[in-house]
Amino acid sequence: MAAQQRTQKLPHTEDLPEKTRKQGNGLLNIGIGMCGTLLFLMFLLNVVLPWWNWLQTQWHYGDMHVSHFDYHGHHFIGEVYRGYVTVFDVPNGHPEKSQVFLLQSAPDNTPVQFETRDVNNDNIPDVIVGTDGSSIGITFYGTKDGVYSKTPPENK
User: Fold this and answer.
1) Which pLDDT belongs to residue 156?
2) What is the pTM of this model?
3) Best-predicted range by mean pLDDT among 14-18, 28-32, 35-39, 69-73?
4) N or C: which end of the chain has fewer CB within 10 A?
5) Which residue in 33, 118, 111 sits closest to 65, CA to CA?
6) What is the pLDDT of residue 59?
7) Neighbours of 147 (CB within 10 A)
8) Count of CB atoms situated within 10 Å of the CB of 139
C-alpha cells in the first residue's frame, strides 16, 4: 500500500482546472450610473437651483424693487429697471386711462417710495415719488379731474 501511495502523483498546479471568474455585466453598471446621474440632476434642478434663486433674491432686497401704493382711487406701481425709476398710474376701475412716467435715474434694486402731500397748496393731495437714499423726488400733481401729471395745474 505504501508502494501504491508512492506511485500516485500529487497534482501540480498546472494540472488543476482554472477557476473562472464571473464577469459583471457592463450594461448594468452603465445603467446604474445613468440612474444615479438622473437623480442627481433632478435634485439639482428641483431643489438646489430654486433654493439658490430664492437666496439670491433675499440678498438683493427681495421684491423690494417693486413698490405698490394705493391712494384716492389710483394704484401706483413703482420700480427701478435698468437704472431708471418707472411709475405706472392705474386708476381703479379704468385701466384704459393708465399712465406711465419715466423718472430720474437710480441704482438698481432700490426701493421706490411714495409720499402724499399738498405741495402747491390747492387743497388737492399730490404724490411725491423718490427712491431710498436719494434726495431727488418727483411730484405728481393731482387735479380736480382725479388725474395726476408731472406738471403743476397752473402751468397747463
Assistant:
1) 47
2) 0.54
3) 35-39
4) N
5) 111
6) 78
7) 15
8) 19
Q: What are 102-114's pLDDT values in tens digits?
A: 887 777 667 888 8
Output the CA–CA distances (angstroms, integers) from residue 18 to 15, 21, 154, in the order listed.
9, 9, 108
Cell numbers at 132, concatenated: 431710498
Using an 8 Å Cβ cutoff, are 45 and 52 in contact? no
Q: What is the DSSP string of the chain?
A: -HHHHHHSPPPPTTTSPPPPPPPPPHHHHHHHHHHHHHHHHHHIIIIIHHHHHHHHHHHTTTTTTEEEEEETTEEEEEEEETTEEEEEEEETT-GGG-EEEEEEE--TTPPEEEEEE-SSSSSS-EEEEEETT-S-EEEEEE-TTS-EESS-GGG-
| Ramachandran angles phi, psi of 75, nearest 5° | -115, 115
Task: Tell me the C-alpha distance between 137 and 150, whole Å.
Answer: 11
Contact between residue 82 and residue 64 where contact means Cβ atoms under 8 Å apart: no
